Amino acid sequence: MNPFLQDAVVFAPELILLMGALGALMAGTYVSDGYQASMRVAYITLVGALVSLVCMSASGEVSFGLNFAHTAATQFAKVWVMMACIGTLMLSHHALGRLQAQRFEFPVLILLAALGMGLMISARDFMALYVGIELQSLALYILAAFVRHDERSAEAGLKYFILGALSSGLLLYGISLLYGATGTIQYEPLMKFISSGVPNMAVTLSLVFILAALAFKVSAAPFHMWTPDVYQGAATPITAFFTTAPKVAGALVVLQLLHGPLAGAEMVWSQILWATAAPSLIVGAFAALMQQNIKRLLAYSTISHVGFLLLAILAGGQEGYSALLTYLAIYVIISLGTFGAILLLQQEGEAAEELTDLKGISRRRPRIALALAILMFAMAGVPPTAGFLAKMFVLLAAMHAGYVWLAVLGVITSVVASYYYLRVIKLMYFDEPVAVTLLAVKPSRRLTALLVITVGLTLGLMLAPSIVTNPASVAAQSIGH
Amino acid sequence: MQFPILSVLTIIPLLGALFIATLRGDEAIIAKNARWTALWTALVTFALSLVLLFNFNAADPSFQFMERLVWFAPANIYYVRGVDGISIWFVAASALLTISAILASWKSITTRVPMYYMAFMVLLTMMVGVFSSLDLILLFVFFEGVLLPMFFIIGIWGGARRIYSSYKFFLYTMLGSLFMLLAMLTIYVQAGSTDLTALIGHHHLPLNIQVWLFGAFFLSFAIKSPMWPVHTWLPDAHVEAPTAGSVILAGILLKMGGYGFMRFCIQLLPEASQLMAPLVMILSAIAIIYTSLVALAQQDMKKMIAYSSVAHMGFVTLGLFSFTHQGLDGAMLVMLSHTIVSAALFLCIGFMYDRLHTREISAYGGLASITPHFAVVFMIFMLASVGLPGTSGFVGEFLSMLGAWQTHPTITAFAAVGVILGAAYMLRLYRACCFGVPATQEVRRMKDMTPQEWLIFAPLLLIVVWMGIYPTTFSSIYQVNLEEILNPHADGSIHHGVGR
Questions:
Q1: B489 confidence band (pLDDT: 50, 70, 90)
Q2: What was the ipTM of the complex prediction?
Q3: What is the pTM of this model?
Q4: Which positions ≥6 away from A379 have C-beta within 8 Å?
């Protein structure tokens, strides 16, 4: 076979995404109802990419020189990125309509972001990684500012862009330092160069810069400052997108870098990771206690989840990898569900912006309230919900690797964090309802379906956890050599 | 494979809850149907648990009615169910007290009725699950799962400070149980299994690890049971919970602490438990004396019974950590007796509260002449709580002190003071409520027991007297298990019958 075609086969999901993005752009420009058309193209593209991903054998091929790899782990991560993208599209229909932001650029940007994430995850070369990160980041900056006429959205986009550009600069600086020290930016030769022992100063410095930049991208403390503002400012379905897909891609990049080419420098990066995991857990738990806005609350909740993700990466080993992947999958499910519940409430005429808007909502909307309550318990990691499984595997890996104190910190911050999740439930169930005028609208079928699926999985994974844990442990075996 | 009776027992209440969720129609009709569904579900569960009891082989110390399925394939965590002589009683008691709880809320709960009974059904599932799970992770899921329905029961149908109390209950217990989770994960890391049947008596962890694990388990169960000084959530939770919530809380939820001490501290970590026994016994003695004194000062009846529960659970830990046969036997009997008696006392308070809507002791008086039947019933349970010979309370307290005396006489002597204090506060409560002059005109108009209330109290009365006169019926079932705990190597082949 033609070598280009061989490469292209490995690259099929990304190629589909690229074609789809261009197709959606065309559809948006030339079809009379551009938004609907490009939306449809985006759905088809994402499902096509998902199918091609699932059908591909994951034998660890590399393509385009040594720049991209396709392994079971990248496959697993990309599947969940696609799921998050599809979920976001399902969430967005009514919300964007309400904000008068149903423009055809939205699905295009989602597809481009997904393409960027695919590149990030598969990259085996720092240049390819950088290109992937930038592609997804640029799409995300525009998405943050997507509701142009809303000041807060514009502010969120600008803030995200400026801080994001800074972190990209840090990343490039780190990469060039690494290049200066080792003479290569490809993962495989790097792995040989940084094989063991104490790395030299330049490598250490470059590690600090690279990890700081990546910590910014996954909103880990102390590089989390942008998160609450951007989450609050962006339109709700876009916030849901920020919460899910970039975190999957970012966590996978950190995992594959640290347990791949940089594995030899574990002495250095384990300290850096410690210094971001612990603050993330603490900030995520304590700063959220004072929040009044639902999206800000969820932003801090994300930060605490990222703390757990970093803990899993820190723990490492087969257990750590599969714990991370399991956590990501479950996290995507419960996050999409939570945003689905909020958007469904908003679609039915509830405010659901501030926490107090949820007062007594269980009387008016018993089913959505129940779903949201289950998802909140899942976020808090209380059994019998899938959130417990996620946290349990991470704690297990941490205990196994000897990070007992971080595990204890994780447990204590989980108790603190469960206070604010309980507060949501308290507002919905224990408080008296406030008077609102209800809209007589039919609940959106897409949102309802999404909510039913996510809540079903949140509970059902407890009965059959192997649906996620089996692929995760298969994927874990492909990491780290 | 035999009939999976334990799984069926766990699922039935859940199905009941789902059925209640599907009820449609007029609000009053939904409420009525929800009540009856819950009652029938609990009755069926209780009947099945009796089947379990009658088919139980008391001569066999191993776990019975075993079920084993793979749960997490890569991690080798199994779905293992089974009961022994110790846990089987708590399974039956959970179902029995749920019936009492449902009957007790028949008229008093009028808001959001279907949800209320759904919460109790889920609660029953979780309780049965805790006492019949033999895998650490599975057990943890149920142990923690108990918090969810109870959080709603206190938070929605509770009293004035219900929100504060429900938070305190949830967060306090969650803190303890998450440390227990870490301990369980450590066991898994160390021994490679979370299957209790494979762990108990087979894996001897190094003592320094055992001590840490003991600390984590102890924190969790000390909060749950509760022990001084981590008992402060209990009075709040009890006072604010509706009557039925208090019944389950005192009757079953506290026993999860005692059961956990037995299963995890004493059976799983025997060396560390021996080492820490004096400390635990001192804490128990402090708990008995301190909380009895606090109970003596209470004006609120529920708060008083709540503190008395802490004191009674002190006798449980006192007996357990004596590591004598009498001590363990006594601890079991105190738990079983307290299950029935504390539940019955909360029902008695519920009886008074339903009529007068106050729990102030001083608001009552002269009930012996106004509601004579009730006064007799109340007296029997009150005396059982004090530990009068002939009632269920006596045997257990006596045996646990007898056991404790053999190993730590000084501590036991202090604890014995608690028995006197216990009599003091219970008699004070009874005198203030039943003798003297009625505090107000409303008290004079109180109605005596209705047939339905007789129905609630009758089975509990029967058990209290039965256990007082012939405790062997209850204790014979778990004797071989106690032997097994005290002499784990007497017969090394015992657990092999149920190994993988």
A1: low
A2: 0.87
A3: 0.90
A4: A301, A305, A334, A338, A387, A421
